[in-house]
Design a protein that fits this description.
The chain contains 6 helices and 15 strands. By secondary structure, the protein is an alpha+beta fold.
Protein backbone atom coordinates (compact mmCIF):
# COMPACT_ATOMS: atom_id res chain seq x y z
CA UNK A 1 0.00 0.00 0.00
CA UNK A 2 1.15 3.57 -0.67
CA UNK A 3 2.40 5.28 2.48
CA UNK A 4 -0.41 7.83 2.73
CA UNK A 5 -3.09 5.19 2.15
CA UNK A 6 -1.39 2.92 4.68
CA UNK A 7 -1.38 5.67 7.32
CA UNK A 8 -5.06 6.42 6.70
CA UNK A 9 -5.88 2.72 6.85
CA UNK A 10 -4.08 2.20 10.17
CA UNK A 11 -5.80 5.30 11.59
CA UNK A 12 -9.15 3.77 10.64
CA UNK A 13 -8.18 0.51 12.35
CA UNK A 14 -7.13 2.42 15.47
CA UNK A 15 -10.45 4.28 15.51
CA UNK A 16 -12.45 1.04 15.26
CA UNK A 17 -10.44 -0.55 18.07
CA UNK A 18 -10.93 2.49 20.30
CA UNK A 19 -14.66 2.63 19.58
CA UNK A 20 -15.02 -1.04 20.52
CA UNK A 21 -13.07 -0.46 23.74
CA UNK A 22 -15.07 2.66 24.62
CA UNK A 23 -18.52 1.23 23.91
CA UNK A 24 -17.74 -2.43 24.72
CA UNK A 25 -19.46 -3.42 21.47
CA UNK A 26 -18.43 -5.16 18.25
CA UNK A 27 -16.91 -2.92 15.61
CA UNK A 28 -15.85 -4.18 12.21
CA UNK A 29 -14.46 -3.44 8.79
CA UNK A 30 -15.90 -4.62 5.52
CA UNK A 31 -13.77 -7.08 3.55
CA UNK A 32 -10.09 -6.23 3.47
CA UNK A 33 -7.85 -7.24 0.60
CA UNK A 34 -4.80 -9.44 1.35
CA UNK A 35 -2.43 -6.47 1.65
CA UNK A 36 -4.75 -4.73 4.10
CA UNK A 37 -5.15 -7.93 6.13
CA UNK A 38 -1.36 -8.25 6.33
CA UNK A 39 -0.90 -4.60 7.26
CA UNK A 40 -3.58 -4.80 9.95
CA UNK A 41 -1.99 -7.98 11.33
CA UNK A 42 1.38 -6.27 11.48
CA UNK A 43 -0.08 -3.34 13.40
CA UNK A 44 -2.34 -5.30 15.77
CA UNK A 45 0.25 -7.85 16.87
CA UNK A 46 1.79 -5.06 18.94
CA UNK A 47 -1.57 -4.09 20.52
CA UNK A 48 -1.77 -6.62 23.34
CA UNK A 49 -4.86 -5.07 24.93
CA UNK A 50 -6.96 -5.28 21.76
CA UNK A 51 -9.30 -8.24 21.26
CA UNK A 52 -9.92 -9.00 17.59
CA UNK A 53 -10.41 -11.66 14.94
CA UNK A 54 -10.05 -11.81 11.16
CA UNK A 55 -12.50 -14.00 9.26
CA UNK A 56 -13.45 -14.52 5.63
CA UNK A 57 -15.84 -17.47 6.18
CA UNK A 58 -13.23 -20.21 5.68
CA UNK A 59 -9.70 -20.67 7.04
CA UNK A 60 -7.66 -19.82 3.94
CA UNK A 61 -9.80 -16.96 2.68
CA UNK A 62 -7.77 -14.14 1.14
CA UNK A 63 -10.31 -11.39 1.72
CA UNK A 64 -11.32 -11.08 5.36
CA UNK A 65 -13.29 -8.86 7.69
CA UNK A 66 -11.69 -7.57 10.88
CA UNK A 67 -13.81 -7.64 14.03
CA UNK A 68 -12.95 -5.97 17.34
CA UNK A 69 -14.65 -7.77 20.19
CA UNK A 70 -16.02 -6.57 23.53
CA UNK A 71 -15.03 -8.25 26.77
CA UNK A 72 -18.06 -10.51 26.92
CA UNK A 73 -17.56 -12.26 23.54
CA UNK A 74 -15.03 -15.05 23.08
CA UNK A 75 -13.80 -15.54 19.50
CA UNK A 76 -14.99 -19.15 19.64
CA UNK A 77 -18.60 -17.99 20.04
CA UNK A 78 -18.53 -15.03 17.68
CA UNK A 79 -21.78 -14.94 15.60
CA UNK A 80 -20.09 -14.78 12.20
CA UNK A 81 -23.28 -15.59 10.30
CA UNK A 82 -24.70 -12.24 11.44
CA UNK A 83 -21.99 -10.49 9.43
CA UNK A 84 -21.02 -12.78 6.54
CA UNK A 85 -23.29 -14.63 4.12
CA UNK A 86 -22.64 -17.16 1.37
CA UNK A 87 -24.54 -17.27 -1.91
CA UNK A 88 -24.33 -20.44 -3.98
CA UNK A 89 -24.57 -19.88 -7.73
CA UNK A 90 -25.44 -22.83 -9.99
CA UNK A 91 -25.10 -22.91 -13.78
CA UNK A 92 -24.46 -25.24 -16.72
CA UNK A 93 -23.22 -25.27 -20.32
CA UNK A 94 -20.43 -22.80 -19.63
CA UNK A 95 -17.45 -22.14 -17.39
CA UNK A 96 -17.47 -18.54 -16.16
CA UNK A 97 -14.31 -17.31 -14.48
CA UNK A 98 -13.69 -15.37 -11.30
CA UNK A 99 -13.34 -12.27 -13.47
CA UNK A 100 -16.74 -12.93 -15.07
CA UNK A 101 -18.40 -13.14 -11.64
CA UNK A 102 -16.69 -10.03 -10.36
CA UNK A 103 -17.57 -8.10 -13.50
CA UNK A 104 -21.25 -9.01 -13.24
CA UNK A 105 -21.35 -8.03 -9.57
CA UNK A 106 -19.58 -4.73 -10.21
CA UNK A 107 -22.04 -4.14 -13.06
CA UNK A 108 -24.83 -4.12 -10.47
CA UNK A 109 -23.10 -1.24 -8.69
CA UNK A 110 -21.78 -3.44 -5.87
CA UNK A 111 -18.57 -2.23 -4.24
CA UNK A 112 -15.67 -4.65 -3.90
CA UNK A 113 -15.37 -4.15 -0.14
CA UNK A 114 -18.74 -5.81 0.53
CA UNK A 115 -17.56 -8.96 -1.26
CA UNK A 116 -15.21 -11.60 0.07
CA UNK A 117 -13.67 -14.42 -1.93
CA UNK A 118 -15.50 -15.83 -4.96
CA UNK A 119 -14.92 -19.57 -5.24
CA UNK A 120 -15.53 -20.92 -8.74
CA UNK A 121 -16.11 -24.56 -9.77
CA UNK A 122 -17.07 -25.91 -13.23
CA UNK A 123 -20.83 -25.90 -12.47
CA UNK A 124 -21.21 -23.78 -9.35
CA UNK A 125 -19.64 -20.96 -7.40
CA UNK A 126 -19.80 -19.46 -3.92
CA UNK A 127 -19.96 -15.71 -3.42
CA UNK A 128 -18.98 -14.65 0.08
CA UNK A 129 -20.48 -11.29 0.97
CA UNK A 130 -21.47 -8.95 3.77
CA UNK A 131 -24.92 -9.78 5.14
CA UNK A 132 -26.31 -6.37 4.17
CA UNK A 133 -25.75 -6.99 0.44
CA UNK A 134 -26.98 -10.61 0.37
CA UNK A 135 -30.63 -9.95 -0.52
CA UNK A 136 -29.68 -7.42 -3.19
CA UNK A 137 -27.47 -10.01 -4.89
CA UNK A 138 -30.13 -12.72 -4.63
CA UNK A 139 -32.70 -10.42 -6.21
CA UNK A 140 -30.61 -8.83 -8.94
CA UNK A 141 -27.88 -11.26 -10.00
CA UNK A 142 -29.63 -13.16 -12.79
CA UNK A 143 -26.78 -13.72 -15.25
CA UNK A 144 -23.02 -14.01 -15.42
CA UNK A 145 -22.37 -12.41 -18.78
CA UNK A 146 -25.02 -14.06 -20.95
CA UNK A 147 -25.17 -17.20 -18.84
CA UNK A 148 -28.36 -17.77 -16.86
CA UNK A 149 -27.79 -18.76 -13.24
CA UNK A 150 -29.66 -19.74 -10.09
CA UNK A 151 -28.74 -18.23 -6.72
CA UNK A 152 -29.53 -19.43 -3.21
CA UNK A 153 -28.26 -18.80 0.28
CA UNK A 154 -26.29 -21.55 2.01
CA UNK A 155 -24.76 -21.75 5.47
CA UNK A 156 -21.12 -20.99 6.16
CA UNK A 157 -20.50 -24.68 6.81
CA UNK A 158 -21.59 -25.54 3.25
CA UNK A 159 -18.79 -23.63 1.53
CA UNK A 160 -16.66 -25.72 -0.79
CA UNK A 161 -13.11 -24.56 -1.46
CA UNK A 162 -11.35 -25.40 -4.74
CA UNK A 163 -8.03 -27.20 -4.49
CA UNK A 164 -5.29 -24.79 -5.63
CA UNK A 165 -3.47 -25.81 -8.78
CA UNK A 166 0.30 -25.55 -8.58
CA UNK A 167 3.56 -26.88 -9.95
CA UNK A 168 6.23 -28.19 -7.61
CA UNK A 169 9.62 -26.57 -8.10
CA UNK A 170 12.56 -28.08 -6.21
CA UNK A 171 16.17 -27.04 -6.14
CA UNK A 172 18.95 -25.53 -4.11
CA UNK A 173 19.68 -21.92 -3.21
CA UNK A 174 22.73 -20.29 -1.76
CA UNK A 175 20.56 -18.99 1.09
CA UNK A 176 16.94 -18.26 1.91
CA UNK A 177 17.33 -14.65 0.81
CA UNK A 178 14.30 -13.46 -1.08
CA UNK A 179 16.23 -12.81 -4.30
CA UNK A 180 17.52 -16.40 -4.38
CA UNK A 181 14.15 -17.97 -3.59
CA UNK A 182 12.35 -15.72 -6.10
CA UNK A 183 14.82 -16.64 -8.84
CA UNK A 184 14.26 -20.38 -8.33
CA UNK A 185 10.49 -20.03 -7.99
CA UNK A 186 9.97 -18.19 -11.26
CA UNK A 187 12.86 -19.54 -13.32
CA UNK A 188 14.80 -16.29 -13.68
CA UNK A 189 18.34 -15.27 -12.84
CA UNK A 190 19.17 -14.00 -9.39
CA UNK A 191 20.27 -10.70 -10.96
CA UNK A 192 16.90 -10.33 -12.68
CA UNK A 193 15.08 -11.26 -9.47
CA UNK A 194 17.03 -8.61 -7.55
CA UNK A 195 16.19 -5.96 -10.16
CA UNK A 196 12.48 -6.77 -9.98
CA UNK A 197 12.48 -6.76 -6.17
CA UNK A 198 14.26 -3.39 -5.98
CA UNK A 199 11.78 -1.98 -8.51
CA UNK A 200 8.87 -2.85 -6.20
CA UNK A 201 7.49 -5.78 -8.20
CA UNK A 202 7.54 -8.27 -5.31
CA UNK A 203 5.23 -8.77 -2.35
CA UNK A 204 6.14 -11.08 0.51
CA UNK A 205 3.10 -12.29 2.44
CA UNK A 206 1.07 -9.60 0.62
CA UNK A 207 3.31 -6.73 1.75
CA UNK A 208 5.80 -4.96 -0.54
CA UNK A 209 9.36 -6.20 -0.10
CA UNK A 210 12.21 -4.28 -1.73
CA UNK A 211 15.06 -5.63 0.40
CA UNK A 212 16.81 -8.36 -1.60
CA UNK A 213 18.43 -9.67 1.59
CA UNK A 214 15.15 -10.33 3.42
CA UNK A 215 14.72 -13.93 4.55
CA UNK A 216 11.94 -16.20 3.33
CA UNK A 217 10.46 -18.70 5.81
CA UNK A 218 8.45 -21.87 5.30
CA UNK A 219 4.85 -21.10 4.21
CA UNK A 220 5.77 -17.56 3.14
CA UNK A 221 3.98 -16.41 -0.01
CA UNK A 222 5.80 -14.62 -2.81
CA UNK A 223 3.92 -12.63 -5.44
CA UNK A 224 5.94 -11.29 -8.38
CA UNK A 225 4.19 -8.92 -10.75
CA UNK A 226 3.93 -10.46 -14.20
CA UNK A 227 5.06 -13.90 -13.02
CA UNK A 228 2.50 -15.11 -10.48
CA UNK A 229 2.63 -16.48 -6.95
CA UNK A 230 4.65 -19.11 -5.13
CA UNK A 231 4.82 -20.51 -1.61
CA UNK A 232 7.94 -21.84 0.08
CA UNK A 233 6.51 -25.21 0.98
CA UNK A 234 9.49 -26.82 2.71
CA UNK A 235 13.14 -26.33 3.58
CA UNK A 236 15.36 -29.42 3.59
CA UNK A 237 18.98 -30.07 4.39
CA UNK A 238 22.09 -28.72 2.71
CA UNK A 239 24.17 -30.06 -0.15
CA UNK A 240 27.86 -30.93 0.08
CA UNK A 241 28.56 -27.44 -1.22
CA UNK A 242 26.46 -25.88 1.54
CA UNK A 243 23.47 -24.97 -0.60
CA UNK A 244 19.96 -25.18 0.85
CA UNK A 245 17.42 -27.64 -0.56
CA UNK A 246 13.94 -26.12 -0.87
CA UNK A 247 10.59 -26.99 -2.42
CA UNK A 248 8.18 -24.37 -3.74
CA UNK A 249 4.57 -24.50 -4.86
CA UNK A 250 4.16 -22.22 -7.87
CA UNK A 251 0.49 -21.48 -8.41
CA UNK A 252 -1.22 -21.49 -11.77
CA UNK A 253 -2.33 -18.09 -13.03
CA UNK A 254 -6.11 -17.62 -13.22
Amino acid sequence: MAEQHCNEFIKRIEDLAERSRRTNRITETLFLNPAEVAEAHRFLKHQSAVKFIFDGAFPDAERKRLFFLPDYIDPEYFPLDEYISVIKVEFSFSSPTHRDFLGSLMGLGIKREVLGDILVFPDRAYIICAVQIRDFILTNLKKIGRLGIECSTVSLSEIEVPTPEFDIVSGTVASLRVDSVTALAFGISRTKAAELIISGALSLNHLPEENISADVLEDDLLSLRGFGRAKLNSVGGTSKKGRQFIELHVFSKK
